[in-house]
């Protein structure tokens, strides 16, 4: 009997570190509820990224995030002054993951402009579809409920990353009149929308990216 009670106590402790997040989604969280240091901040970021991806920003509460991270709700404010500030941090981390993946791909890419562009698109798709929840938080449309200050910060992060592609697209040897801004917007629209229909087991993210680049190039070159 004593052994059974001890087993049940351990199970309850483990279950208390799992959050149902209000929609049946269970997010594994570390034990402990103290404020902690950098590792606890990362716990919060990861929990928030998972919940923002699954429930949306508006559908995720501070209490949801705290519960998923194994913290008391008030402890979040030791690390972030608001839920908006937490979103900005998650978004920034996602952008940095994209940037790191693309820069690594370009460092290995040949000099040919189209191959460099293709390599960057492949890296973007792989980071989006096989990376983490952080990168998926970068792609949804910004909510109108966010403050102008927050939207400005997030757009600045995104624009800094997209500057890499502006340079790559600018170097493409295309004939005729091509609006390179529209080219870039259509590219990101196509690549990022894949999170809504992509399923593992079919074409890989890199293969999908190559198809996109092929279709874009064919449309330009005729």
UniProtKB/TrEMBL annotation:
The chain positions of domain HTH tetR-type read: 38-98
The domain of life for this entry's organism is Bacteria
Give the DNA-binding residues: 61-80
Keyword annotations for this protein, in alphabetical order, are:
DNA-binding, Transcription, Transcription regulation
Coiled-coil portions: none
Which Pfam families does this entry report, sorted A to Z?
Answer: TetR_C_24, TetR_N
Annotated region described as Disordered, given as residue ranges = 1-40
* InterPro entries linked to this entry: Homeodomain-like_sf, HTH-type_TetR-like_transc_reg, HTH_TetR, KstR2_TetR_C, Tet_transcr_reg_TetR-rel_C_sf
Which Gene3D superfamilies does the record cross-reference, listed alphabetically?
A: Tetracycline Repressor, domain 2 (1.10.357.10)
Q: Cite the GO molecular-function annotations of the record.
A: DNA-binding transcription factor activity; transcription cis-regulatory region binding
Q: Which PANTHER family match?
A: HTH-TYPE TRANSCRIPTIONAL REGULATOR BETI, HTH-TYPE TRANSCRIPTIONAL REGULATOR RUTR
Protein name as catalogued? TetR family transcriptional regulator
Record the organism: Eilatimonas milleporae
- Biological classification of the source: Bacteria, Pseudomonadati, Pseudomonadota, Alphaproteobacteria, Kordiimonadales
């Amino acid at each position: 009997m004593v052994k059974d009670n001890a087993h049940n106590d351990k199970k309850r402790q483990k279950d208390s570190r799992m959050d149902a997040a209000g929609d049946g989604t269970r997010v594994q969280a570390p034990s402990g509820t103290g404020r902690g240091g950098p590792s606890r901040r990362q716990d919060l970021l990861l929990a928030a990224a998972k919940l923002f991806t699954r429930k949306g920003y508006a559908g995720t509460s501070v209490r949801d995030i705290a519960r998923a991270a194994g913290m008391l709700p008030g402890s979040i404010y030791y690390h972030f002054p608001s839920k908006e500030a937490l979103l900005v941090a998650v978004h920034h981390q996602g952008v940095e993951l994209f940037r790191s993946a693309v820069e690594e791909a370009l460092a290995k890419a040949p000099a040919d402009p189209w191959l460099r562009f293709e390599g960057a698109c492949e890296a973007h798709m792989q980071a989006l579809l096989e990376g983490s929840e952080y990168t998926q938080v970068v792609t949804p449309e910004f909510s109108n409920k966010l403050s102008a200050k927050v939207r400005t910060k997030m757009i600045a992060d995104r624009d800094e990353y997209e500057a890499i592609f502006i340079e790559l697209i600018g170097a493409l040897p295309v004939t005729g009149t091509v609006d390179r801004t529209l080219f870039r917007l259509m590219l990101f629209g196509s690549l990022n929308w894949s999170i809504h229909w992509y399923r593992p087991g079919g074409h890989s993210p890199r293969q999908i990216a190559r198809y996109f680049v092929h279709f874009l190039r064919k449309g330009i070159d005729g």
